[in-house]
């Protein structure tokens, strides 16, 4: 008998996501992804000054505030044809790189590792053999017997007091948990250490952005970081060297802990390299621009269709018509008035809630499409585009990952294994390594540019009369983010955000094609329908953020039925 399992809300994510799966013969046969809340940022922006849009849009989400600020200023600058100074470009790049490092570390350790790591089993780990295993894989000084013993003692004291503190409510002892107690002990100790390193990355955002979450230093036309090496209050060598030190600490953690953990844990769960592919059309946008116009980038972006790396086509600039002309959103199955497919410049936002109906409308999330195709976005898309296009850093770290995981698993792994649930985790770690290396290089460029006497941070501009439109994209931690703005006589006429989690969490469309979350769940095993851990594994691998996906919160606070509340 098929069984319907509802997980509502899915937690250890940002926002409110409901997943329904139909399970039969131990496997998922059908699935629905539903965003369960609504806000109105895009409506709030209508009629306002486009210079303020970045401040509003970064309130879309409590997790990725920065990314909406960046996409917004890029969109308005694109509409006004404003070119920003090199210092501004590099300062923005350092902020988005650091934000992304914080985000990827938090995602792996704090939001998803406990789908794979059994905290209670770590109590049976042996600090001596765990340390020996770790030292065979990495020079990280935090893997000592003493360190691991301390973590084990801390865990034991939680359990002896009858509570696991932050680790309460996990699926401990679930049959799908497969790691050796020593590996669980190591992973729990890295979970705690990761808290320190995500903070270091975020400190970089705070130093340059003046505050985090919700940076304060942007302006349409540049940044507001005055540069004067002889002044305590401005961006000076002291602050620049603090940033360098923090990034180097994070780089060591990424190389010696994060990458190694993902490779080793991934290898120990090898069957998950064949579940969860779902949609294998991929979309990523280029980022970390190296010039003032946005025509050269250190992170490539583009499209891949049907999982075929030979189809890779790159986006060339912040103005590329291949991106601009191919994005649409469809609302046939989403709670908005109508059933249209429209380009973001042409969209309107008219909420129309009705009951959740699997055969009709069932989500607040729209269904974005690229050239009428369902696309998966996120680190995997970006890494595959980089790998296929010969991007050196991507190839270096992706090959490292495949080789290391392969040697632990005792198998030869090629890039095709990345189309999977674990592939998304691997890609996020690979991307963190690429980004921290690139950030340090951009730090060097910034210091050299300032050293050459350039302290320019802002390009003055004025609003044109009449109507102009622009788009800005950013490869955010969860994937391709784009903001679209129509400006009339210096006021916002229309504003649309097409967000990474919207691409991935979106519902079916007018042709009944499933979105990426939905498609990725088909054929996932489910050992115990009362504890659908495997469903969480695949959904968490995307790093869902529903606040972003819907950028809207029901003002009437409509309650939806909670069938099951799980970790
Ligand atoms: Ni709210 Fe976000 C990112 C954006 S979402 S976390 O990354 O944009 O999908
Ligand atoms: Mg939107």
Short note summarizing the structure:
The chain is an alpha+beta fold.
Distinct helical segment count:
16
* Quaternary class: single chain
Q: How many domains comprise the coordinates?
A: 1
How would you name the CATH homologous superfamily?
Cytochrome-c3 Hydrogenase, chain B
CATH overall fold name: Cytochrome-c3 Hydrogenase, chain B
Walk me through this protein's architecture.
By secondary structure, this protein is α+β, with helices and mostly antiparallel strands. It has a single domain, classed as Orthogonal Bundle (Cytochrome-c3 Hydrogenase, chain B), CATH 1.10.645.10. Helices cover 40% and strands 16% of the residues. It has helices spanning 41-45, 53-57, 65-80, 86-112, 127-137, 145-160, 181-209, 237-268, 321-324, 379-388, 392-409, 421-451, 500-505, 516-521, 533-540, 546-550; strands at residues 3-10, 17-24, 27-35, 218-219, 222-223, 282-284, 287-289, 297-299, 302-305, 308-314, 327-330, 341-342, 367-370, 376-377, 467-476, 479-488, 491-498. The protein has a 4-stranded mixed beta sheet with strand order 10-9-6-14. A hairpin with a 2-residue loop joins β9 and β10. α5 (127-137) crosses α7. The longest helix has 32 residues, at 237-268. The two termini are 26 Å apart. Residues 552-567 have low confidence and may be disordered. The protein binds NI-FE active center and magnesium ion (MG). Magnesium ion is lined by residues 496-498, 551. NI-FE active center is lined by residues 14, 61, 63-64, 67-68, 476-478, 481, 499-501, 545, 547-548.
């Amino acid at each position: 008998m098929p069984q319907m399992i509802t997980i509502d809300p899915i937690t250890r994510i940002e926002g409110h996501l409901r997943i329904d799966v139909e399970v039969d013969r131990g496997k998922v046969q059908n699935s629905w992804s539903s965003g369960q809340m609504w806000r109105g940022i895009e409506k709030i922006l209508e009629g306002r000054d486009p210079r303020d849009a970045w401040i509003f849009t970064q309130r879309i989400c409590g997790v990725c505030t920065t990314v909406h600020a960046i996409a917004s200023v890029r969109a308005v600058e694109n509409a006004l044809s404003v070119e920003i100074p090199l210092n501004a470009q590099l300062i923005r790049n350092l902020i988005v790189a650091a934000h992304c490092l914080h985000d990827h570390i938090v995602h792996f350790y704090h939001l998803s590792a406990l789908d794979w790591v059994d905290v209670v089993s770590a109590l049976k780990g042996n600090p001596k053999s765990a340390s020996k295993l770790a030292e065979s894989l990495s020079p990280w000084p935090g893997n000592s017997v003493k360190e691991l013993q301390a973590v084990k003692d801390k865990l034991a004291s939680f359990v002896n007091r009858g509570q696991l503190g932050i680790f309460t409510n996990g699926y401990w002892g679930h049959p799908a948990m497969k790691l050796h107690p020593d590996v669980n002990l190591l992973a729990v100790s890295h979970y705690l250490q990761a808290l320190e390193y995500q903070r270091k990355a975020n400190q970089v955002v705070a130093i340059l952005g003046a505050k985090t979450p919700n940076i304060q230093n942007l302006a349409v036309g540049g940044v507001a970081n005055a540069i004067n090496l002889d002044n305590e209050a401005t961006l000076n060598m002291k602050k620049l060297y603090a940033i360098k030190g923090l990034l180097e600490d994070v780089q060591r953690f990424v190389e010696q802990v994060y990458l190694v953990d993902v490779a080793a844990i991934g290898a120990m769960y090898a069957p998950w390299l064949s579940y969860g592919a779902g949609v294998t059309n991929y979309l990523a946008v280029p980022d970390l621009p190296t010039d003032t116009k946005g025509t050269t980038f250190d992170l490539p972006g583009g499209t891949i269709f049907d999982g075929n790396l030979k189809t890779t086509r790159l986006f060339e600039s912040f103005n590329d018509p291949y991106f601009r002309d191919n994005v649409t959103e469809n609302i046939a199955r989403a709670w908005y008035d109508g059933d249209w497919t429209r380009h973001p410049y042409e969209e309107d936002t008219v909420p129309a809630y009705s009951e959740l109906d699997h055969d009709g409308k069932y989500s607040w999330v729209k269904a974005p499409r690229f050239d009428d195709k369902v696309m998966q976005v996120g680190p995997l898309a970006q890494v595959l585009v980089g790998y296929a296009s010969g991007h050196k850093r991507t190839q270096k770290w992706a090959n490292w990952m495949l080789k290391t995981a392969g040697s632990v698993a005792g198998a030869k792994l090629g890039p095709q294994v990345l189309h999977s649930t674990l592939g998304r985790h691997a890609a996020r770690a690979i991307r963190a390594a690429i980004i921290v290396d690139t950030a340090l290089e951009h730090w060097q460029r910034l210091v050299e540019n300032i050293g050459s006497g350039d302290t320019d941070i802002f390009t003055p501009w004025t609003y044109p009369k009449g109507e102009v439109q622009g788009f800005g994209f950013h490869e955010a931690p969860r994937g391709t983010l784009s903001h679209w703005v129509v400006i009339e006589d210096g006021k916002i006429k229309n504003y649309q955000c097409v967000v990474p989690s919207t691409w991935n969490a979106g519902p079916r469309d007018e042709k009944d094609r499933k979105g990426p979350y939905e498609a990725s769940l088909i054929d996932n095993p489910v050992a115990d329908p009362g504890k659908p851990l495997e469903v969480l594994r695949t959904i968490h691998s995307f790093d869902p953020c529903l606040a972003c996906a819907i950028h809207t919160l029901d003002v009437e606070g409509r309650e939806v039925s909670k069938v099951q509340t799980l970790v």
